[in-house]
Amino acid sequence: MSAFVNYVADDVRGSPLNLAVVRVLLGIWVVWRVLSLEWAAYGEWPEFHVDETIGFLHQELFFTLLPYQQWVVAALLVLFIVGYRTRWTGGLASLLLMHMLSVKATIYLAGTVESLFVCAYLILLFALFAEDDPLSVDGVRRTGGRSLAELNAVLTDGTDRTYRMRALKWGLLAVAIIYVGSAWGKALNGPLEIWLSGAELQRDILFYGELTGIDRALGAPIVEHEWLAWAGFVGTAAVQVSLFVAAVLGLSVTLPIIGIIGFHVSVILTLGLYFIDMILVLSLFIAWDGIYRRVAVAADESVRVGYDDHWSGCVRTLVILAHLDVTDSVEFVSQSDAPPALADRKEGLVLVRDGSVYHGYEASRQLLSQFRLCAPLAFAMATPPVRALGTRLYASAAPARS
């Protein structure tokens, strides 16, 4: 399996985990970036040059609102991270963030602005395709609107589960187009022969070295040898275009993404911390479900679970766990059709592992322990205080399941 996923070629996966991981990573990163920037200071910057195309955004009121908007965006993103009303929280957060970045861009269009714009696009795509994400608060809430027959079908016919990744599909395509635009922009922003000669790259290294006062050893050879500067420009353009070509043609995007990450690392080493956000953006397309499949599921042993298919709360909880079972290590059997060993209407839940039978609260704990990501919770459930409380809560819920 490839280290990175070409969602443009195929946006269907056997697990929804990638959507959940990307939502959480993206949200946490943008919250940190939004809160770490000094938005209040931008209104005090001198007006070197205001871009006339967005000059209408250069208003004192907008600069005054920036430090307040950052907290509104952060609060919305916290809800986005857990997947609560993603269509609204993600949509509003992305639009407000785009407005803030546009206001900042009227005085200085830095790499941070451009990179965070990409993050805002991705958040907006998650909002547009919020129904694809079942491992979220919204996903849990949606189970309440589905019939028991539908939920039971998810459990008993779970081997054919497939999940759309439309937010990641269009997100990858957008990122690929942006990198093509970056390569094409170099040809538009000056004589192409200057870029091809490497002179522009040499000037950038000298300029940023003087600006920051930091001598970067890796940039010196490029300044001294024109052929290195030429190779740097041509190699960069080729790598940037390769991502779009691979994505559209259905090829592996692993090498293009690794190449672009290498390009960003080289920029950091030769110029400074520019476009560092794009390394995170590219990392979002890692095959997280493949990593999870290898390290997070106890696939070395399988279990059978008999559950009361008329107990709504139990069925809804088991559906969430079924989404995590990417190796099909759990066989769910409704107690309406279960053999005697898996039927226990009183307890509502029975788990069989290696000939050992567990009922009720202990069955639920054993089921959680099947997933290594849930191992801390399963361990906590085994401690005497939690077990005593959990057993009582389980007993109070079980009789009311009808």
Describe the structure.
With 402 residues, this protein is mainly alpha-helical. The protein has 2 domains: 278 residues, no CATH class; 105 residues, Glutaredoxin, CATH 3.40.30. Helix content is 62%, strand content 6%. The protein has 19 helices and 6 strands. It has a 4-stranded mixed beta sheet. A two-stranded antiparallel sheet has the order 1-2. Helix 1 runs antiparallel to helix 3. The longest helix is centred in the middle third of the chain and has 24 residues.
**What class do helices, strands and sheet pairing give?**
mainly alpha
Number of strands: 6
Largest sheet: 4 strands, mixed
**What's the order of the H and E elements?**
EHHHHHHHEHHHHHHHHEHEEEHHH
- Cα Rg: 26 Å
User: How are the strands of the largest sheet arranged?
Assistant: 4-3-5-6
Tell me, what's the shape? elongated
- The number of distinct structural domains comes to 2
Number of helical segments?
19
Strand content: 5-15%
In round numbers, the mean pLDDT is 82
User: Poorly predicted ranges (pLDDT <50, ≥5 residues)?
Assistant: none
Estimated helix fraction = 55-70%
N-C termini distance: 45 Å
Main attributes?
402 residues; Glutaredoxin; 4-stranded mixed beta sheet; two-stranded antiparallel ribbon; 19 helices; 62% helix; 6% strand; elongated
List the helices and strands and how they pair.
Elements lengths: L11 E2 L3 H20 L2 H4 L17 H23 L3 H20 L5 H18 L8 H7 L4 H9 L6 E2 L1 H23 L3 H6 L1 H14 L7 H5 L1 H24 L4 H17 L6 H7 L4 H8 L7 E5 L4 H13 L5 E5 L14 E5 L2 E4 H10 L5 H8 L1 H14 L5
Parallel strand pairs: 3-4
Antiparallel strand pairs: 1-2, 3-5, 5-6
Helix pairs in contact: 1-3, 1-5, 3-4, 4-5, 5-8, 7-16, 8-12, 12-13, 13-14, 17-18
